[in-house]
Amino acid sequence: MVQVPDSLVWELVKSNTCFMKKMNGQTKRSGSVKFSVEKGNVKSLSMFKYSGLANSKVTDVVCTDGNGAALITKTASKAHTKPSKGMVSTNINKDFRRVENVIEKQTISNYYRPDLKAAVLGKWTKVYQANRRAKGITKPIPVKKGRNSKN
To answer: Contact 107/120 with Cβ under 8 angstroms?
Structure first.
């Protein structure tokens, strides 16, 4: 199979794909918003920057079964005719700061996709909060003390 530039793939895919969801809303120009639900799309927006189909380097954070999370990256594999084998999933079920370091090392520090740093870390925050809610873990509420009390 011949390698195709990312920009050409985007031009072919941007107007019509099975992953596209169009929602009527209020935007400045078109009046509708285009979402995309393909694997690897960090913000679920139909844009070249976030596209999991058109980009050769893709990263995403997803929820897994059992209230866990996984970091998905697209590999430069030799199996380009089998897209299902082109994704690598890394389980990230540690505490928040450790996982933040893992995400930065795997995607940003090695120049994989530094432009997606804010989007990936923002999605990790939301996935982490959702998993904590699903597990029933909440922040402890500090006890209010009176004005003159010492401890």
So the answer is: yes
